[in-house]
Records
---
Amino acid sequence: MTKVLGKVTKMIKSFSVLSLFIFCVLSANTAFPQISKELKEKAEHGDAEAQYFIGVIYSEGKSVTQDWAKARFWFEKAAAQGLAEAQVFLGFLYGEGRGVTQDLSKARLLYEKAASQGHAGAQNNLGVIYDKGLGVNQDWAKARFWFEKAAAQGLAEAQHNLGDMYDQGRGVKKDFSIATLWYEKAASKGYAVSQYNLGDMYAEGSGVKQDWSMAKLWWEKAAAQGHVGAQFNLGLMYYKGAGVKEDWSMAKLWWEKAAAQGSTEAKGALEKIKSK
């Protein structure tokens, strides 16, 4: 797609997946909105899941004051009993330095323990660690190994990351067709970054036949989730009449959405419209 207002590169998010997946787990597993007397008693008597949920509650900080140190205390108890979810959260705390001194080696060891139990999120996070060389020597073969394990379990983040590896040619031969297949798997699960990248693939004809209607479809899905790059590109489609009837009012609508999220390109595009 011709980027007349400055090139919009793919918003690759593999680095942020490490944090993103943790917070997805946090929201999904907050089954106990408060630390009840019963929950605390179970935790104090060694119930690993109760210990884990108290850690989640302190991490989330909704029904109690957020306290990373207390979260770590309970996650450590549950992780010591081999609970994979607690090992993943504890790995996150060490990776981010929340409630502890940042220690990427400890984070990796904890992810390895959870990954060995088949925890897809831990496997994906190990992939990110090796992909980016976080506390280890960068190793794309190991990154792909862990991403493939997590992707085989259907984890959208890992499927996206594999697509990104083939898209960029990191540790594998660049192959847009394979990249597209992985993006499609993640996009079909609602993963916005893959939806955006898939839109790019159709717009550019990379790995698929060039198709503006498909580009628009996937950008709209990503934009509906607040993806700023997709919002900008939809605006550009309407501004240039690429695959749609030229419509500056629609271009303005999408650019305003992107600008509201801080997109400097969208802000520049809006100024360009005003000057005409």
Note: Confidence is low (pLDDT under 50) at residues 1-24, 26-30.
---
Amino acid sequence: MRLESGDTVFVPQIGPVVALVGRVNQPAIYELKTETRVADLLVLAGGVTPRGYLERVQLERFQANRERIVEDVNLLDFYQRGVEGSNPSLKNGDLVRVYPVDLRIYNAVSLEGLVKRPGRYALRPGVRAGDLVIPDELLPDAFLDRAEIVRLRTDLGTEVIPFNVRDAWAGKPEANIELRPLDRVVIRSQVRPIEEVMVSGMVKRPGQYAISRGERVSSVIERAGGLEPKAFPEAPSSPAVPSGWPSSNSSSGLSERKNRACSPRPRPSLRARAN
């Protein structure tokens, strides 16, 4: 229509409106022309996104101009079984909220540790530990005598279930355990970590030294080039106290340590560390 001089343009008052928010394609405020239900509103908005959770669509409403109430609607009951009560009619001022689905993946287990392709694997019914841990997928230094299944219990605690990988391949029931959702299968290394100590203080070559199991302090100090002339060899500090030293609850030992602490001469020290 073409406007002419003297015309009056009348904009009527907006009618009943509802708001739609959440995981829908076009969240907005919509005006209601006729009776509109929740499913009709979702059609106007272009439907829900793939992340939209239809089993709990929330409807917020002002009731009798006195209070605000909330109602949870299971739209899947309407879509799948035609339950009309799960598709209520909308009123002026209603707010419809579509929540997202839980992003956590439950039909999966994870494989970790000394394997070629660690990560998440789909959990099929009846899958056991021996089916997941394939021989060709293990790294050469994988420890087969003991692997672990880390499982989340129903009380949300963690349970560690050890098993022998070879026995699982052989089909032994005590080792070939059936996996459950969210299980973590961990393959450890059979190579022991290198144990090192830090030698510092009045030695000729301070630094880190690899040690063998049961090696003594005197051996490590000798490898460090020996003591400097000003070193105090009677009391090197070490996490492990050699046998024959006074115990911590001995009064004579306490007096002796106090006398040593008063000595101005520095001491060599050892600090153990395992890589």
Note: The longest helix spans residues 251-261.
---
Amino acid sequence: MSCDRGRPEWPASYPTRRLWRAHAKTQLSPGQKAEGSRPQGAPTGKTTAPVGSREFWRSRHRTHHVAGSRKSSRNGFREPNVRLSSSSPAALRQERAERLRRDRAATLTLRDAFPGVQLLRLELKFEGAAANLPAAQSHVLHPPAQAFFAFPCPHADCDGQFDLTSVVNTVLADRAAGAQGMLQCSGQRLDRRAARVPCELHLHYTCSITYQPGAR
């Protein structure tokens, strides 16, 4: 008898090593099979390229590319196509600026339209019921400047303008040194409820003209 209590004693003629392994393993009945087990050497249905081979790295690249595409399609987004409403202040301001730019480009220069004018100055001051009135403006035109005398209403949400073309033409026709007067904006603004209301901003202007020597 062996004094080793952890291992059972077997006859000397029995293959002790083989029996010890069999005793240590869990025996399954013939009708039972471990889950996921398969006969050794049985094909899995998919051939795996050896690690480090060219086919192995190509398959990994294709797998990562497909996974990245799916992830980007889920998490990706498109930039919203923002369109300004035709009644928004930004749209009104942009439309008015484009209209004035086209009209200014179509006019003659001061030298071509009025050859006898050396300098033309327009002083604009605003008055109205609003608490915050627009700042005063001063425009000085030299002979190379465009002979354009229309100015947008300084309120950003107004679609009106102040046109001093007839005032300047009258002063030049009379060969006068200048003129003063008042105009009211005929444009419309947006109130707090986004409704169109008259602007009614008043403009006090002063037109001063300096003629070329001998032009008067």
Note: Residues 89-211 form one domain.
---
Amino acid sequence: MRTRCSYRCAVATQHSACPSTRLTFVTAHYPQTLFPLALLGLAVFWKGLMKAREKKSHSVTLAIQALILFLPTISRRICHSFRCSTYDQGDYSYLDADLGIDCNTTKYRLMLTYAGAMVLVFPLGIPLLTYQMLYKNRHGLNPRKWEAAMTDKEVEEKRKESIHDHPIGGIARIFKPHYM
């Protein structure tokens, strides 16, 4: 005999009569935020390995570009961790992104703490890191602004060298300074 699931059970898949094969918000949240960080760590490790062998590696540049590409998606998922809705005049509170997560539980509070830390890493940290790297390399990206006496050929050479040597160079390459 097949039993019917209640509405909450069908949404949350917590009842034994309901299949629980659905990927939950929490089980998807951790890998989607940790994988990009692991990828960046691996890229930094690989670059160090190549530098020790005196070879060039663009792994960090590619990892930073991938992080910037996926930043809106990751940031959106992180921000969905904070919004709960109340039901039955405030008796129940569930996460809007996954109605199977009760906002009054320890599991949710742990996820909320993790999401708070990830806000510092992704929506705030990655743009600030990118800005810091571009600011640090600003003299090489737009040399004419800092050394007005340079010829066009010297400016081009310094810019190419700076873009090639710096991890953020791959991103800066698509932008042209005001003098060109």
Note: DSSP finds eight helices and three strands in the chain.
